[in-house]
UniProtKB/TrEMBL annotation:
Keywords: ANK repeat, Repeat. ANK repeats lie at residues 223-255, 256-290, 291-325, 385-408. This is Uncharacterized protein. It comes from Cladosporium halotolerans. InterPro entries: Ankyrin_rpt, Ankyrin_rpt-contain_sf. Pfam families: Ank_2.
C-alpha cells in the first residue's frame, strides 16, 4: 500500500470527507482501490470497509478490486461484537443484494456472532427470504445453536421477528427436517420454542410449532413450568387456548406445586381475562402450592382486586378463609398492603421473568381487603403465631387498611399474638406509628367496646378528683369523675373535654 493512501475503512468511518455527489464518491473509492487501499484495514471498532457498504455499486468495486488475501481477511474479520461483515449487513437495513454479493465472494455462512447466533438467525430476523433459501442448502447452518443452546425455532418466536416474517420465509423454515432443528430443542433453561412463544405471545408462530407433529405441550423447563404456565403468566389467552386444545394439562404443577392459575393470579399483567378463561376451562381454585397457598392467596398478596372478585364468584368456589402452611389467609396477605415475601412463604412472581418494578397492572390492596371482607373473610382469623389481619396491617404501617378493618364491629381490637403483642404494639413499632397508633389507642370507640365487662364495671365504680389547669376559662377547675370517664371518655362532669394536662388525685 502506498504511504500516501489512507486506509479505506477510515474513509468509511467518516474521515476524510468524501464528495457529496455519489458518482464522485464511487470514483474516489475506485481510485483508492486502484492505489492499493486495503479492504481488510480495521478501524478502532475492528470494522473494515465491508461493514459500511450501503450500496451494491460500492460492494462491486470493493469485492472486485480487492486482492484475494485482503478480501479473505476482510470477510473473516470480526468486530468487537463478534460479527463478520456478512452478519453485520444481514442485521442492518441494507437490501439483500449486498449480503448476497458477499456470499458470492466467499463470505462464510457458518459464521456466528459473539452470542453464537448464526447467519440463518440473522437473515430470518430481517426476513431475507432468498438468503434464507441459500443458507438452508447447508444443513449444518440450520442445525446451529447459539451459546444458550437456542436453535432457529427459538429465535423465530420473538415478537419483532413474527411481525416481519412472510409466508415464504416460514415455508422455508418448515422445510427444515426435525432431525436437524427440532421445535422441541431445549435451551440452557430447558425451554423449548413453544415455551418461548408462550412467553412472547407470538400466536402465529405457536400455531406453526403446534402443527409439527413432534411439538410437546407437556415439555417442562428448569422450574418444571410447561408452556401453559408461561402463557398464563403473561396473559396470552389465545396461546393458552391453543395449548389446551392440544391437550395441555390445565392444572400442571411446576416448582413449588404452582399451577397455571396460580401463575395468572400472581402475574405482572392485568390477567383477569386469563383467570376467567382458565376457570371456564376447569382450572381448580382449590389447588395448593408447597406452602398450601391457593390461587386466591396469590391474587390477594398481589393486590389484584379484579382477580380476587373473579375467584370469589360463588360458582367458582374459592375458599376465602383457606389457610396456608403458616395459617395465613388471603386477608392476612392483602393486609400487608404491598407486594412482598412477607410471612413464611414466598409470594413473588415465581420466576415469571418480571421484576416488581416492571408490573404493568395497578394494584389496589385497600380494595382487595374490602373485597375479601365482602366475601365473608374471617377478620379475626389467626395465623399459627396468633396474628390477625389487624396485626399485619398495623405492623406494615397500612393506615388505610387499618381503617377498613376497624369498620367491622366484630374485630378483635386487642387480640394478642403468641408473643403477647397487640396491634397497638405492632403499630408503635411501625414507621407510620404517628398515623396508626391514634386509631388503636384504648380510648377509641373500638378500644372501649373491647373492654371486658368486669373492667368496665370496676372503672365506673371508683371516682377520682380531677384538677384541670388548662381548661378553656383559664381558671383552675376541680371536679370528680369516674375512673372510666377519665381513662376512656376523657371529659369532665360538666361535659367539657378535659385536657391532656389534667391531674388525677
Amino acid at each position: 500500500m502506498h504511504a500516501s493512501v489512507k486506509p479505506l475503512s477510515a474513509s468509511c468511518a467518516g474521515t476524510p470527507k468524501l464528495p457529496a455527489d455519489f458518482e464522485d464518491r464511487l470514483e474516489v473509492i475506485e481510485l483508492l482501490m486502484n492505489r492499493g487501499a486495503q479492504v481488510a484495514q480495521l478501524n478502532p471498532l475492528k470494522k473494515n470497509a465491508l461493514f459500511f457498504i450501503g450500496d451494491s455499486r460500492v460492494a462491486e468495486i470493493l469485492l472486485g478490486k480487492a486482492g484475494k488475501p485482503d478480501l479473505e481477511h476482510a470477510l473473516e474479520a470480526k468486530d468487537l461484537e463478534g460479527c463478520t461483515a456478512l452478519l453485520s449487513l444481514l442485521g442492518s437495513s441494507v437490501g439483500s443484494e449486498i449480503p448476497s454479493l458477499l456470499i458470492d465472494s466467499g463470505a462464510s455462512l457458518h459464521a456466528v456472532d459473539g452470542d453464537g447466533r448464526s447467519t440463518l438467525v440473522t437473515a430470518v430476523w430481517k426476513n431475507r427470504t432468498e438468503i434464507v433459501r441459500e443458507i438452508l442448502r447447508d444443513h449444518k447452518v440450520a442445525a446451529k445453536e447459539d451459546h444458550r443452546k437456542r436453535n432457529i425455532w427459538h429465535h423465530v418466536t420473538y415478537t419483532n421477528t413474527e411481525k416481519v416474517l412472510t409466508d415464504s420465509t416460514i415455508d422455508l423454515l418448515l422445510s427444515i427436517d426435525e432431525r436437524i432443528a427440532s421445535v422441541n430443542q431445549l435451551d440452557e433453561k430447558k425451554r423449548s420454542s413453544l415455551h418461548s412463544s408462550a412467553i412472547w405471545g407470538t400466536t402465529r408462530i405457536a400455531k406453526i410449532i403446534l402443527a409439527r407433529s413432534t411439538a410437546s405441550v407437556h415439555a417442562t423447563e428448569h422450574h418444571d413450568k410447561t408452556p401453559l404456565h408461561f402463557a398464563a403468566t403473561y396473559g396470552h389467552v389465545e396461546i393458552a387456548d391453543m395449548l389446551l386444545r392440544n391437550r395441555a394439562a390445565i392444572d400442571a404443577q411446576c416448582y413449588g406445586n404452582l399451577t397455571p392459575l396460580h401463575m395468572a393470579c400472581g402475574s405482572g399483567t392485568d390477567s383477569v381475562e386469563m383467570v376467567n378463561f382458565l376457570l371456564k376451562k376447569g382450572a381448580s381454585v382449590k389447588s395448593r402450592s408447597d406452602d398450601q397457598m391457593t390461587p386466591l392467596h396469590i391474587a390477594a398478596a398481589h393486590g389484584q382486586v379484579k382477580i380476587v372478585n373473579a375467584l370469589l364468584v360463588p360458582l367458582n368456589g374459592a375458599d376465602v378463609n383457606a389457610v396456608s402452611e403458616g395459617g395465613w389467609t388471603p386477608l392476612h396477605l392483602a393486609s400487608c398492603g404491598q407486594h412482598t415475601r412477607h410471612l413464611d412463604a414466598p409470594v413473588g412472581n415465581f420466576e415469571s421473568g418480571l421484576k416488581v418494578s416492571e408490573l404493568k397492572v395497578t394494584v389496589d390492596y385497600v380494595a382487595t381487603v374490602r373485597a375479601l371482607l365482602a366475601g365473608h373473610a374471617n377478620i379475626n382469623q389467626t395465623s399459627r403465631t396468633l396474628r390477625t389481619a389487624l396485626h399485619i396491617a398495623a405492623e406494615w404501617g397500612q393506615e388505610d387498611i387499618v381503617k377498613v378493618l376497624l369498620e367491622k364491629k366484630n374485630i378483635r381490637f386487642t387480640a394478642k399474638d403468641s408473643a403477647g403483642n397487640t396491634p397497638l404494639l405492632d403499630a408503635a413499632n411501625s414507621t407510620q406509628r404517628g398515623k396508626i397508633v391514634p386509631l388503636l389507642t384504648p380510648w377509641t370507640t373500638h378500644g372501649v367496646e373491647s373492654l371486658p365487662s368486669d373492667i368496665k364495671t370496676a372503672a365506673k365504680s371508683f371516682d377520682a378528683n380531677i384538677v384541670d389547669f388548662q381548661n378553656s376559662s383559664g381558671k383552675i377547675r376541680r371536679y370528680r369523675a369516674s375512673v372510666f370517664d377519665v381513662l376512656y371518655r376523657n371529659h369532665g362532669s360538666a361535659g367539657e373535654e378535659a385536657s391532656v394536662g389534667s391531674i388525677c388525685q
